[in-house]
Write a structure and sequence with these properties.
Order of helices and strands: EEHEEEEE
Strand order of the largest sheet: 2-1-7-5-6
Protein name: (2Fe-2S)-binding protein
Distance between the termini: 23 Å
Shape: globular
Keywords: Oxidoreductase
Pfam families: Fer2_4
Radius of gyration: 12 Å
CATH architecture: Roll
Structural class: mainly beta
Strand content: 25-35%
Length: 93
């Protein structure tokens, strides 16, 4: 899976999300999953055997992209969550 965005596309303002304590560049209007993949962060969660799981359906049906929002501990789907400046998530859940 390539971490490259399509060149020449109009993008929103540059923002930063925090994934596992590290800053990840993003653009307003894109999903958290898009920002993570563009930054080569392909492990969204780990299963009960601690095996990394990644994006699968990209439409909110499979739950493979669940990440944990640090602010409230809620599990959210990265493929449906709009990236917001300062949004902090963990992939250890």
């Amino acid at each position: 899976m390539s971490g490259t965005r399509i060149p020449g596309e109009t993008r929103g303002a540059a923002i930063t999300v925090i994934v596992d304590g590290a800053p990840v560049p993003a653009f307003a209007g894109e999903t958290l999953a898009t920002a993570m993949i563009a930054a080569d962060r392909t492990a969204f969660r780990h299963d009960t055997r601690r095996v990394a799981r990644g994006l699968f359906c990209n439409m909110g049906s499979c739950s493979e992209c669940l990440v944990t929002r640090v602010a409230d501990g809620r599990r959210i789907r990265a493929c449906l969550t709009e990236a917001a400046d300062g949004l902090e998530v963990r992939t250890d859940g």
